[in-house]
Amino acid sequence: MKVADNLIQIRQQISNACQKVSRSPDEVKLIAVTKYVSTERAKEALDAGILNLGENRDEGLLAKWDVLGDKPLWHFIGTLQTRKVKNIIDKVEYIHSLDRISLAEEIDKRAGSKIKCLVQVNVSQEESKHGLSPEEVLDFIKSLRPYKNILIEGLMTMAPFTDDEEKLRICFRKLRMLRDQIKKCNLDFAPCNDLSMGMSNDFEIAIEEGATMIRIGTALVGEAGEEEEG
């Protein structure tokens, strides 16, 4: 399937989910996760009108940057090793995976201007997932005040991979409540407006629970080997 055809379907699903909870589709930023596909497929997404592209490895981002440059807004959505910050810091619009002080220090040191960051939260408390526990988040964010090049735009989580809708809703709802708690603190360095949550299998539920950013890979751009199909 062409990305443009997939996009029509995804946008309809976004619209339907928003309508259920009286939200505007304009409140939801669609990020095409291109980590499993070629640069050509990523360019197809860009040509289809998708402005935001997400990568989870510095190598993948740099390879696509060499061809696409700053035409897309790049989101780094994977675990970011401190030593690799220097490779991507001048190329990304958002980092979705801030989860430790050592990483904040490196981002702050390397950045030439404010970098929009989201704090990664392991809401489901799964050992296989990265991120802070919900109980750690507020104190962690408050500790970021000295880092003048970091702006905490919101929170990110990965929900459990399950068909249990209620488990998904609980996960997304907890992140939204945590975000609301932080917003009430009125921290100038942490406006915390965004919720990055929801992927190909659960983004409609995430939208119903307040997601402002959804990260869609397979359902939108497919996986490696699929780009020749259709």
What can you tell me about this protein's structure?
- By secondary structure, the chain is of the alpha/beta class.
- It has nine helices and eight strands.
- The protein has an eight-stranded parallel β-sheet with strand order 7-6-5-4-3-2-1-8.
- The longest helix is centred in the last third of the chain and has 19 residues, at 165-183.
- The N and C termini lie close together (5 Å).
- The model is unreliable at 225-230 (pLDDT under 50).
Percent range of helical residues: 25-40%
Radius of gyration: 17 Å
Report the biggest beta sheet as strand number plus sense, adding barrel if it closes. Answer: 8 strands, parallel
Strand order of the largest sheet: 7-6-5-4-3-2-1-8
Low-confidence stretches: 225-230
Beta-strand content estimate: 15-25%
What structural class do helix, strand and pairing data support? alpha/beta
N/C terminus separation? 5 Å
